[in-house]
Amino acid sequence: MKTTLTRQEANESILQFIALFKQGVEAWIKAGEILVKLVEDDPHAYDYIIQKCPQLNAGILGRFEQMGRKTLHPQLLLTASPGFAKLQKLPFSLQERYIEEPVPLVVHTDEGTDILLVQAKNMTKEQANQVFAPGRIRTEGEQKALLMQQRSNAARPINKDSAPAWTIKSGRVIFREGTSLTAGELATIIAQLTK
Q1: How far apart are the first and last CA of the chain?
Q2: Would you state the pLDDT for residue 193?
Q3: What is the pLDDT averaged over residues 113-120?
Q4: What is the rounded CA–CA span in Å between residue 146 and residue 137?
Q5: Are residues 83 and 112 in the same domain?
Q6: What are the C-alpha distances in Å from 78 to residues 45, 122, 182?
Q7: Residue 134 Cα to chain centre, angstroms
Q8: Which residue range(s) make up the domain with 51?
Q9: Does the pLDDT at position 164 exceed 60?
């Protein structure tokens, strides 16, 4: 049976939900801090914890340890997005900054390029790859250079003379797109297959 909440009841429930959510994140951080102390005291702490709580594994415990050491912001674990996956690899100060603050993203326009401010959690895989470099965020100049290189590579014609029109692999002939053969070339293929 469905119950209808008044506006005031709904607002109270929303505030209660948000408070519990924040408590949960804070509890994760506290659990991580405790885990750090355990690991520093005994390098076999993971094994003991997993024995007592088989639902956990070394990967999960590693994430809690990262939170406890302040190398991973817990909010980055709550959203599966390409931007947040890249943000996890940055220093904690940048993680904290760009969880909410938009990141400058260079885009092509008819007049050249422009800068969009995009939330990391909303980025596509391509945008995240453009913006995030190992351990840092690319500058606008670096992003422009990357885009120019990608355009240059896409515009470069394929030299069809450098690649054979066909290859033989595991007794099968694989033809390059747009290949046409003479009778002699077909005979060569057959001879190679029957060797």
Answers
A1: 76
A2: 73
A3: 94
A4: 13
A5: no
A6: 25, 13, 60
A7: 12
A8: 15-96
A9: yes
On whether both 32 and 69 belong to a single domain, the answer is yes
Which residue shows structure tokens 């008819």? 110
Q: How many Cβ atoms are within 10 Å of 112's Cβ, its own excluded? A: 7
How many domains, in total, are found in the chain?
2
Regarding predicted confidence, which is higher, 187 or 28? Answer: 28
pLDDT digits (tens, 9 = 90+) for 41-91: 999 999 999 999 999 999 999 999 999 999 999 999 888 899 999 999 999
Q: pTM for the whole thing?
A: 0.65
Helix locations, the chain, DSSP H: 7-41, 45-52, 58-68, 82-87, 92-98, 125-131, 140-155, 183-193
| Rounded-to-integer distance, Cα 39 and Cα 52, Å | 16
Residue that is written with structure tokens 């029957």 in the block: 194
Residue 137's SS3 state is strand
Tell me: do 22 and 76 sit in the same domain: yes
The answer to whether residues 160 and 148 touch, using CB atoms and an 8 Å cutoff, is no
Amino acid making up residue 103 = V
In this prediction, residue 73 carries a pLDDT of: 93
